[in-house]
């Protein structure tokens, strides 16, 4: 069993639906914390005892996921976050390009941000729009521009 499979299995254990296909719908990234920001003065992130789902510790970058169905929470470090995200980002991007969804999903968005294709400002803006149903004209224009750039990238 590869490490990627091990991680996915660990995540599935916390999932509601044991079907792999359901993973992206079930899990949402809801919080990112830099462990150094949680430290008292004079202590280092490496002295805190945050542990990734895979068992790796200490962690500097903390990615918290919540299961939308059963409420389970998991914590991933940056290595596992990247593996988990990359595995599902492609699916998000394909669904978006094929017009099966209106908005690009969070995994796809994360990948474009990690790749440096989206800057932090655009990333945060688009992410905040993902949870809304109504937009102002200005917000809609801005989203159209970002989505247009994404479509061109994969043309
Ligand atoms: Zn890990």
Report on the architecture of this protein.
The chain has 155 residues and is α+β, with helices and mostly antiparallel strands. The protein has one domain (3-153). It is built from six helices and three strands, in the order H-H-E-E-E-H-H-H-H. It has helices at 3-13, 23-26, 78-97, 106-114, 120-129, 137-153, and strands at residues 27-34, 61-67, 73-76. The protein has a three-stranded antiparallel sheet with strand order 1-2-3. A hairpin with a 5-residue loop joins strand 2 (61-67) and strand 3. Helix 3 crosses helix 4 (106-114) and helix 4 runs antiparallel to helix 5 (120-129). It starts with a helix and ends with a helix. 21% of the residues are buried. The model has no long low-confidence stretch (mean pLDDT 86).
Short description:
With 155 residues, the protein is of the alpha+beta class. The protein has helices at 3-13, 23-26, 78-97, 106-114, 120-129, 137-153; strands at residues 27-34, 61-67, 73-76. The protein has one domain (3-153).
Which runs of at least 5 residues are low in confidence (pLDDT < 50)?
none
Distance between the termini: 35 Å
Number of domains: 1
Task: Give the cofactors and ligands.
Answer: zinc ion
Summarize the main sheet: 3 strands, antiparallel
Write out the strand line-up for the largest beta sheet, numbering strands in chain order: 1-2-3
Backbone shape: globular
Helical percentage: 40-55%
User: Number of DSSP helices?
Assistant: 6
Radius of gyration: 17 Å
Give a count of the beta strands, DSSP E runs of length 2 or more. Answer: 3
What percent strand? 5-15%
- Following the backbone from N to C, one meets helices and strands in this order, namely HHEEEHHHH
- Indicate the mean pLDDT: 86
- Classification by helices and strands: alpha+beta
């Amino acid at each position: 069993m590869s490490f990627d499979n091990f991680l996915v299995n660990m995540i599935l254990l916390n999932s509601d639906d044991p079907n792999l296909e359901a993973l992206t719908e079930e899990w949402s990234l809801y919080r990112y914390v830099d462990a150094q920001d949680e430290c008292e003065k004079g202590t280092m992130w490496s002295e805190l005892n945050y542990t990734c789902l895979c068992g790796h510790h200490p962690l500097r970058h903390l990615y918290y996921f919540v299961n939308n169905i059963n409420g389970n929470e998991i914590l991933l470090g940056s290595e596992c976050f990247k593996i988990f995200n990359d595995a599902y980002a492609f699916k998000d991007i394909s669904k978006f390009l094929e017009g099966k969804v209106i908005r690009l999903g969070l995994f796809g968005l994360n990948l474009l941000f990690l790749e440096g294709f989206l800057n932090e400002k655009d990333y945060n803006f688009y992410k905040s729009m993902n949870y809304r149903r109504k937009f102002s004209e200005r917000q809609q224009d801005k989203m159209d521009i970002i989505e247009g750039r994404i479509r061109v990238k994969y043309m």
